[in-house]
Amino acid sequence: DTTAENLMLDMRKSGKIFPAKALKRIGISLLHMHEHGIVHCDFGTHNIGKFGSRWKLLGVGGSVAIGDPTDPDRGFYHPPEAVVVESKRAPLGKKAISASVISVPAQTTYDIWAYGVVAYEAIAGLPLSPYACRGKRAMSQVEVGKIGRWDENSLKKALKHIDEANEVARSLIRMLLHYDPEKRVNSMRDVLEHPFFSGGADERKSRRSGESYTSGARGGSPRKQSSSRMTRHAAPSQLHSRSKLTGTSSTSSLKSARLETDRSFKKENIANGSYGLHSGEGKSFIAVNGGEGLALSKGG
Q1: Ordered domains of the chain (ranges, CATH)
Q2: pLDDT at residue 177 above 50?
Q3: Confidence band (pLDDT; 50, 70, 90) for 90?
Q4: What is the DSSP letter of 268?
């Protein structure tokens, strides 16, 4: 059992790249939250767990309803619109940069920026904001300030670490990491329908496992991407159900999968004002089981 953060660090050391199909499964979990009116607000590699063959989205406990204020003290992958940067005079005439995270109304674009940070690290093979060692993400004033000043030039510099020939991957990162939330893609459904997830991304094989991995980073040898199952999610009216999502075929789209539900989950208004799904098992994760099933729960 491990996290995506640890996996990415280990894969970089061994020259491997994070699986594209895992990125899609994780994205499906985020889509499921958004379609139920919930924003995670602390999405990132540290909150993506791998338990055997299952990928689980952790840290759901602090999620909030769309439109509710975010907690500036929670999370690491804050988008530019949640960072305020100020220049202050320092001794000897130097300028000091003061950057702080502020509370903003929670929108899907908040999580989508964070998903873009994760996707960038998976594709480019290095983090958008470097961290020195396992479990230590950079949260210095300098790094936070870089995000607060993120613009088109910042994005162009970041894209230099992705092979120019892999325009599909570069296109995905552009739509995820746009500095303006009004121009950033605002739907995970649109993200998952991007050609990157439907055979348009270059890939390479893991020498050890034979699994297909994304290869957007420079130096990756292109391979044809194998198709994987796409899934459709419950409408908000089905929020009281536990959802099991079953793909129809390797060529099916998000709109053509079959949805099965049972009645073991319910919507609950959490005491701190956030919303989630609560299960009697007391779990706090969203799980995608082999791309075939998804369970959404909120720990009590």
Answers
A1: 2-296 (1.10.510.10)
A2: yes
A3: low
A4: E
